[in-house]
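Hello everyone,

My group is preparing for a crystallization screen and wants a predicted model to guide construct design. The compound we'll soak is zinc ion. Before spending weeks at the bench, it would help to have a computed complex in hand. I've included the protein sequence and the ligand's SMILES below. Output in structure-token form would be ideal because that's what our pipeline reads.
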Amino acid sequence: MKKLKKNSRCTICKAKGEKEKAIIYLPHHRLTLCKKHFISWFEKRVEKTIKEFKMFSTNDKILVAVSGGKDSLALWNALTKLGYEADGFYINLGIDQYSIDSKELALNFAKKIGRELHILDLSKEIATIPQLKEISNRPACSACGTVKRYYMNKFAKEKGYSIIATGHNLDDEVAVLFGNTLKWDIDYLKRQYPVLKEENGFIRKVKPLCKITEKESALYSFLNNIDYIEYECPFSVGASSIEYKEFLSRLEEKHPGTKLQFYTNFLKKMYPLLNKEKEKKEELKYCKICGEPSYNEICSVCKLKQKVEKLVNTNYNINM
Ligand SMILES: [Zn+2]
Ligand SMILES: [Zn+2]
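Reply:
Good plan to model first. Here are the tokens for the complex, ready for your pipeline.
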């Protein structure tokens, strides 16, 4: 990690008269920390974010969206250590080796912390992501986002969870915010809040790592001996959000604190303005086929399903 001077001492230890060696310098917080104090700083920061945005309490049953990556596993670890009741939910997307590896890491971690990991196989529900990419003619990430949101929400309701927690970190949120701002996409900006309320058949969704950077969650995972998948999903290569991340990280390098300021000032100053005008009542609809909330008569997942079925039938007829 950058700018940690040789032989630096931990700020907190120093104040207590101890001499623990620091392992990280957090320039945007002006903190130099040892292993023990970085871990507790991280967990306190997550707890503070949960309280600040009134995300949930220890009475809630939480379902953590687990991808096998550092963020979701770090989140699951921190929530468990903070005393929350959190189980994991892993969707097997069927993306070759990436899915095989990430599933194994997610399973190993669940065993390690002694919590349940629910697994949903997309190939059994609809089709794998590579298949859906072919069928829908859309970028894989777009179909993937749609089906993940859908099955996560449906599953959580069926199993009686009241909260869905995702591992989106500060870098993710800032990259999305930046993209939406470049386009002045007001509808998306209006929804960019670390808590999405439960309404219209959707369960409450929260992002407790929204003020944690990617580097911080990687370090937290490393220090806690969490094995996570270290490579990105092969489909995410070339996504504009990755370009934004690289650009913003260069900016952060020169001006530490830029990301956090951009994000927190948006939440404090811009978000309330965007939501001032009375919400136009979005007509509440439920999908005619599956009954899940939808903006149209038939939800996008059921539409995808119809396409899959049509294709299977056509192939069947040809094979006859
Ligand atoms: Zn210390
Ligand atoms: Zn449907």
